[in-house]
C-alpha cells in the first residue's frame, strides 16, 4: 500500500474469522471483490475466534467498522493484545491501538472505558463516535474521535470546486496524513 504496510500484514475478518483465499483464488471466504482483494492466501490453521486470531496474527492495531458486532473487542481480546506486545523484544513494543469505528455508540466494538480499563490505560483508543474521557489509574484518558468527517467535507468541496469526476486514492492518503500531522505526542498520550 502507499502507507508502506504490505497487504500480507492486513488481516480482514468477518463473522467466520480471517478472510482467506486459495493460491488460485478458487476457494476462500471473501464474499465480494473488496474482501477477495484483501484475503490472506491460505486457510488459517488456528481457531477463528477473535482472541485466537489476535494470538496468532499478533496485531498492533485492531479496527472494528461493521456496525453489527457491538462489544466484540472483549476483555480477553484486549488482554491478548497486551500479551502480544509484552512478548516482543523491548525496542519493538508499541501501545496497542484499538479503533471502534461503528456508529452509533451502542454498536461500538468496545467502549472507551472498557478499552482503557482492560488495557490498564496502555491502549490508544479511537472511535467513530464521541466517548467521554475516563480516569484510569488516576489519569484522565481522552478518547480520540477517528471519523471520516475530518476529511470528507474538504474533499467533497474540493471535488465540487474543480468539477472532478473521480478522486484518486492518493488524495485520501494526503488528507489522512494532513489530519495525522495535526496531532502531537500530548494528543496521543
From TrEMBL:
Domain Malic enzyme NAD-binding intervals: 1-186
Gene3D superfamilies: NAD(P)-binding Rossmann-like Domain (3.40.50.720)
Superkingdom assignment: Eukaryota
InterPro entries registered for this protein in UniProt: Malic_NAD-bd, NAD(P)-bd_dom_sf
GO biological process, one term: malate metabolic process
Listed GO MF terms: malate dehydrogenase (decarboxylating) (NADP+) activity; NAD binding
Name listed for the protein in its UniProt record: Malic enzyme NAD-binding domain-containing protein
